[in-house]
Structures are given as C-alpha cells and as structure tokens.
Amino acid sequence: MADTVYLNGAFMPLEDARIPVLDRGFIFGDGVYEVVPAYSRTPFRMAEHLRRLQHSLDGIRIANPMSDAEWSKLAAELIAKNDGEDQSIYLQVTRGVAKRDHAFPKDMKQTVFMMSSPLTTPSQAQIDHGASAITASDFRWLKCDVKSVSLLGNCLLRQMAADAGAVETILFRDGKLTEASASNVFVVKNGVLLAPPKNNLVLPGITYDVVLEIAHAREFEVEVREVSEAETRDADEIWVTSSTKEVLAVTTLDGKPVGDGAPGMLFRRMHALYQDFKRDVMRKPA
Ligand code: PDD
User: Fold this and answer.
1) How far away, in angstroms, is 244 Cα from ligand 1 center?
2) DSSP, res 268
3) pLDDT tens, the chain, 286 aa long
4) Secondary-structure class of domain 124-282 per CATH
5) Strand partners, 185
6) Alpha-carbon distance 49 to 62, whole Å?
7) Do the Cβ atoms of 85 and 40 come closer than 8 Å?
8) Which CATH number describes the domain made up of 4-118?
9) Domain positions in the chain
10) Which ligand 1 atom sits nearest the alpha carbon of residue 181?
11) Is ligand 1 within 6 A of the CB of residue 169?
12) Distance from Cα 265 to the centre of ligand 1, integer Å
C-alpha cells in the first residue's frame, strides 16, 4: 500500500500532497506538531498528545482547527489506511498561506497535515547495550515547551550527535541539564531517579510523564528538580525518553562510560515496566 497522508480535508497518496510556497510553515517555520506512537493500530496517550498540541497552539496563537474527537477520528482513519501494526503518526498545523509578513495576517486558514511512518523503536542491541550521547550547550530559544516545527536548533544539535556516531546530544543551559535534541533526559545517582522539571526550557514529554507515573507507582525514589551538569557527568545511569525511543539507556557520554558502561539496574527495571505498561494500555484502550 502506498503511503496515504491527510492534507486540509482529504486523504491522498504522499506524492500528491502539495502546499503553496507561501505557507508560513515553509516561510517562517510558523507551526506546531505532534508525534504520536500507535501500537497495534491504537494511538498511545492520544488525549495527552492532544492536550500538548493545544498548549503549543496557544503558545503561538493559532486556533485549534479541530476538536479532540475530530483529531482522534482522523488519526484512526489514517492508521487504517496505512500499513503496519505499529505506526508513528505525525501531525502538523501551520498558520496557513499568506503574503510574506512577519506579523500574523488576519483571517488565516490553518494548514493541517498528517502522515504515518513505520514506528521504529530501539533495536534489541541498543536496549541491551545502551547508546552513546555527546553533550552541547543548549542554544535554542526560551520556549522549548512549544512543540514548534522551527526545529533548526534541534536539527543542528542532533547532527552533532550524528557526526560523532552518537544517538543523541544532551543539552546544558547555565550549568543545568535541560533535555536532548529530540528526547527528555533522566539521570540516576545513588539509586535516586532525577528528572529536570517541566518548564519553558524543555518539551513536556509524554514519555517523560509515563516514566514518572511508573516510577511513582513502583516506588522508585524520585526527585523532580534541577539537575546540574556535574551531576549528569557523574551519573550512575542516564536515560533518554521519547515516543519513538521509549526509554533508552545512554551508556557512553562524550566518549566516557556512564556508570559501569552498561545499562543500569534501574533502567532494566523501568524498561520492562514500560513494555508491560504499554501492553496493558493496549489491552484496554481508554
Ligand atoms: N520528539 N524533547 C524534544 C526536544 C523532543 O523533540 C521530543 C520528542 C521529546 C520527547 O517527547 P515525547 O515523549 O512526547 O515524544 C523531548 C519527537 C519524537 C520528534 O520530534 O520526532
């Protein structure tokens, strides 16, 4: 089956989807997006993703073009029209098409786009051995809680990791851990799970919330607080989380082993709990 996408009211083959070059998404990166994993053709945590979409839209003053029920219906239709039990659903809303002017033109009609890709989660080797990451200073803007399609900062930072043969670039701002170029970051020290708080400097990750929910339910020792660069470099374990990476151990940071250089005990426990949690949710969809 050819990839089917949704654009402004219609489903069509990917290669037929076209937007005008004056779309403000193209000209200014003026839009927001979501990535929702679907397991066994069921979106995972859809309500939470739609809540974050609303937060992002509010953050850049675009009206939500659809109700949550309409978004969910569209996502279900898109999933049904594409191959694969596990899919990654990408949805994007831009301010729409207008003559180029930085200020928002009046009476804009949002551009709405949705596509599906195969959901690629970490390989068994990555789960077993962990991944490597590098570090960099977080030079992005101060509204990282908005899931903006203006991702140049994230792309430059992620490319630094790619150039170094690493999976992620972990970011520090003013000596504090923020997140990574496309994931949230957790640190374990002396058996305590440390999580940087959700604020304007990080994307409020849906996976981050699931991990904290599991950690609290299973009585992990958890501290949600600022984590210093020194603590990160001295960590026993580092994890990165995202909808596509799920929970992944970072076992090498800037070429040095994290802890003993193998995925830690808490990671192995959390990874297993996360897989169980997913399976349970899929058995009884909300
Ligand atoms: N990225 N932080 C950043 C900067 C991200 O881009 C992402 C996700 C996350 C994790 O959020 P979540 O757990 O909701 O996926 C944190 C997606 C997957 C992407 O851009 O492809």
Assistant:
1) 8
2) H
3) 679 999 999 999 999 999 999 999 999 999 999 999 999 999 999 999 999 999 999 999 999 999 999 999 999 999 999 999 999 999 999 999 999 999 999 999 999 999 999 999 999 999 999 999 999 999 999 999 999 999 999 999 999 999 999 999 999 999 999 999 999 999 999 999 999 999 999 999 999 999 999 999 999 999 999 999 999 999 999 999 999 999 999 999 999 999 999 999 999 999 999 999 998 887 765 5
4) alpha beta
5) 240
6) 17
7) yes
8) 3.30.470.10
9) 4-118, 124-282
10) 4
11) no
12) 25
